[in-house]
Amino acid sequence: MNLADCSSHSATARLLHFGSPGAIYLRRFVGSLHVGRCGSNPTHVKTLRLRSNPPKTLTVTAAMASEAEVAASAKIIDGKMVAKEIRDEITTEVSRMKDAIGVVPGLAVMLIGERKDSATYVRNKKKACESVGINSFEVRLPEDSAETEVLKFISDFNDDPAVHGILVQLPLPKHMNEQNILNAVSIEKDVDGFHPLNIGRLAMRGREPSFVPCTPKGCIELLHRYGFQIKGKKAVVIGRSNIVGMPAALLLQREDATVTIVHSRTQNPEQIVKEADIVISAVGQPDMVRGTWLKPGAVVIDVGINPVEVRRLPLVFFIFHDHILYDATCPRGYRLVGDVCYEEARKVVSAITPVPGGVGPMTIAMLLSNTLSSAKRIHNFQ
Ligand SMILES: Nc1nc2c(c(=O)[nH]1)N[C@@H](CN(C=O)c1ccc(C(=O)N[C@@H](CCC(=O)O)C(=O)O)cc1)CN2
């Protein structure tokens, strides 16, 4: 029995209509129950054995998945580990630059509004800067701020020599015009790579953008660092957002892959994805890409970070008709899943990124890398 049932992606959701609220049925169960820890991925799969003997006590033991089970599954592309490697490299470079020319790279981050997820990302960006020795400057504005106020801060950061990178956390409050704001960032400090001139250059042969957007850059970096060939491969990008899908497709094309974009109006997406040697998915739909969509041996980069509600009760697991009702091990009340049904995919593909711990950490590592490159370029430091 498996926690990751991607047909409903959340066993909880499927089961809520059974029984009356508050009525909990504990079914006797003998056998193995594979459970991904909250906030983890199946590299850390634990097997919980629930024994009905002796009948009045229910014992729970945990053991690691068998070696055969692990060997049969895909390679895990560990973004957390690669991001750490990259941060270490950046730390070395930042201190080399400081020692040689006395310049410390600086990143300005703007957060407008009170979105919790955005506040977390901004806090993590600040922490990451500290960890590698990059200076960070933070501006927080209330949700109802005027666009002109944001533009004024951007203009000041554009002129500030201590600032080498500027980013405005997205999404913006609804009343703000994203285009106006992204256009206002100097292309020389556009470490998010969202300025239309940088995107335009990314799309053109023979032109070089000053910066490449962090998440797609992180995807390609993972493929490179794990030694997966891109040139000549069939790649499918699922999703066409300005932040991820579209620039990811452009980057893969620059790497000489043959690229197809699958989006919400695509007919038969499964058939198209099934042809791909490399799949980058960035749609924000939990467990949308099923194992059957994937070509055996494909490499999958899952950009989706989708919160899925997990019901909390005092016991760790409640089981009803072979389904897990509640998982009290998730203190946040939700767990994160990708766009790709991980449990199914890992049995088919040769390598896959987990969620969390895959592309997410790479986004921030690439931001640091872009900020360092910007400082080097501005100060002509090799
Ligand atoms: N100005 C920008 N806004 C946004 C960007 C961006 O690149 N520039 N990307 C996303 C959010 N984002 C960075 O800003 C981001 C998202 C996720 C992660 C990450 O490390 N995720 C972890 C899980 C985190 C958790 O537990 O909640 C993971 O996947 O392991 C980092 C950065 C939208 N806005």
TrEMBL record:
<dbReference type="InterPro" id="IPR020630">
    <property type="entry name" value="THF_DH/CycHdrlase_cat_dom"/>
</dbReference>
<keyword id="KW-0601">Photorespiration</keyword>
<dbReference type="InterPro" id="IPR000672">
    <property type="entry name" value="THF_DH/CycHdrlase"/>
</dbReference>
<dbReference type="GO" id="GO:0004477">
    <property type="term" value="F:methenyltetrahydrofolate cyclohydrolase activity"/>
</dbReference>
<dbReference type="InterPro" id="IPR036291">
    <property type="entry name" value="NAD(P)-bd_dom_sf"/>
</dbReference>
<dbReference type="GO" id="GO:0005829">
    <property type="term" value="C:cytosol"/>
</dbReference>
<comment type="subunit">
    <text>Homodimer.</text>
</comment>
<keyword id="KW-0511">Multifunctional enzyme</keyword>
<comment type="function">
    <text>Catalyzes the oxidation of 5,10-methylenetetrahydrofolate to 5,10-methenyltetrahydrofolate and then the hydrolysis of 5,10-methenyltetrahydrofolate to 10-formyltetrahydrofolate.</text>
</comment>
<dbReference type="Pfam" id="PF00763">
    <property type="entry name" value="THF_DHG_CYH"/>
</dbReference>
<keyword id="KW-0521">NADP</keyword>
<dbReference type="GO" id="GO:0004488">
    <property type="term" value="F:methylenetetrahydrofolate dehydrogenase (NADP+) activity"/>
</dbReference>
<keyword id="KW-0378">Hydrolase</keyword>
<dbReference type="GO" id="GO:0009853">
    <property type="term" value="P:photorespiration"/>
</dbReference>
<comment type="similarity">
    <text>Belongs to the tetrahydrofolate dehydrogenase/cyclohydrolase family.</text>
</comment>
<keyword id="KW-0560">Oxidoreductase</keyword>
<dbReference type="Pfam" id="PF02882">
    <property type="entry name" value="THF_DHG_CYH_C"/>
</dbReference>
<dbReference type="InterPro" id="IPR020867">
    <property type="entry name" value="THF_DH/CycHdrlase_CS"/>
</dbReference>
<keyword id="KW-0554">One-carbon metabolism</keyword>
<protein>
    <recommendedName>
        <fullName>Methenyltetrahydrofolate cyclohydrolase</fullName>
    </recommendedName>
</protein>
<comment type="pathway">
    <text>One-carbon metabolism; tetrahydrofolate interconversion.</text>
</comment>
<dbReference type="InterPro" id="IPR046346">
    <property type="entry name" value="Aminoacid_DH-like_N_sf"/>
</dbReference>
<dbReference type="GO" id="GO:0035999">
    <property type="term" value="P:tetrahydrofolate interconversion"/>
</dbReference>
<feature type="domain" description="Tetrahydrofolate dehydrogenase/cyclohydrolase catalytic">
    <location>
        <begin position="77"/>
        <end position="192"/>
    </location>
</feature>
<feature type="domain" description="Tetrahydrofolate dehydrogenase/cyclohydrolase NAD(P)-binding">
    <location>
        <begin position="213"/>
        <end position="377"/>
    </location>
</feature>
<dbReference type="InterPro" id="IPR020631">
    <property type="entry name" value="THF_DH/CycHdrlase_NAD-bd_dom"/>
</dbReference>
